[in-house]
Amino acid sequence: MVKCLKIPLKRAEIIRKKFDTYITYNYLPEKGKKYIYFALRKIPDKIPKGIEIINKALKKREKKPKNIKDILKNLMNEKELNELVSSFEVLNTIAIIEIPNSLEKYEQQIGNAVMQMHKNIKTVLKKETGMSGKFRIRKVKVITGEKNFVTTYKENSCLFKLDISNMFYSTKLSTDRKRIAEQSGRNENILVPFAGYGPFAITIAKKNPKTKVVGIELNPEAVKYFEENIKLNKLNNCKALLGDASKIVEKYPEFKKWADRIIMPLPKNALDFLPYVLKCAKTGTILHIYAFDSKAGEYLNAQHLNAFDSKEYPFERKIKKVEIIAKKYGFKTKLLNKKLVRPYAPNVFQICLDIQII
Ligand SMILES: C[S@@+](CC[C@H](N)C(=O)[O-])C[C@H]1O[C@@H](n2cnc3c(N)ncnc32)[C@H](O)[C@@H]1O
Fold this sequence. Notes:
- There is one protein chain.
- The protein is an alpha/beta fold.
- It is built from 11 helices and 17 strands.
- It has 3 domains: 2-56, Alpha-Beta Plaits; 68-148, CATH 3.30.300.110; 169-357, Vaccinia Virus protein VP39 (Rossmann fold, 3-Layer(aba) Sandwich), CATH 3.40.50.
- Helix 5 (174-183) crosses helix 6 (199-207).
- The protein is elongated.
- The chain starts with a strand and ends with a strand.
- S-adenosylmethionine (SAM) binds at residues 134-136, 167-170, 173, 193-196, 199-200, 216-219, 222, 244-246, 265-266.
């Protein structure tokens, strides 16, 4: 039982506003035929005529948990709660979460907690490995819900269908995909080696309907979804090709000196492919090259301390490497922009270099 204000329905809004500081919303207001009841946090000194204070059994409002730690706090001890990573990636109906070995015994409960947080999640996957192999695929395991790895999610106004167990995915790159789509010129020819299920290529093609966008991908399963995503987004300026980025020009000679812009989203070793990809470039081509850089972390600290030394300039090794490779193949380069894209591992950042062939 809680102390309540009993207010005739006709005067409900005026009285509620007047006594708002006395009312608690930790209990759900109850509406009857003639009256509405609001729980009180403190008793007002005076109440208007026709209003009563009575005892009533109102329902307690369920508090929305802040995160999965909040849900699991009665199950795990403090040490275990500290080991629990409370963030997870959501691709529409599928969530993917990292669970340390020490918490394996709670897998099921962690999965249930994730589902409790997001009501439209139907499957919770646990990361079993990092992204690995030439297709950059992560092993995942279903811990709660339907045994399903295929979902369709929305990113930057595009729809993407993919099979999480069979191809690379990362929603953390969505901001950079948007950045490059916004930079792309209206009528450009754009090449995306390492295209996956098409997130870069499709975001650019959709934002810039007059561009011609071609993505090349080695993983046949990813190409299948890339083709489906082109249809899903109703694009007629985007093409998915199955192939090896080191043999683009041999297999598709029409792309020799074709590209105004080339996006290389293979941070692990995009630079190994630069000599081959450069065959598609010409004077003016802009390259967006992704890489991993451990020095970038120092840059962040130095920036923070407002004290970085130009001799120790971060990204320098990667920029130099691009310069050297390009020079070997007869190209001069100009750095347009360098960007920290996201933290990848302790002290390792994914970076992007925007470099123009001049
Ligand atoms: C880091 S993933 C990026 C995929 C996609 N761009 C995205 O953002 O989701 C790199 C992709 O390059 C593909 N790949 C690896 N080696 C390749 C090659 N030699 N030629 C073409 N694609 C390749 C992998 O299969 C993988 O899908």
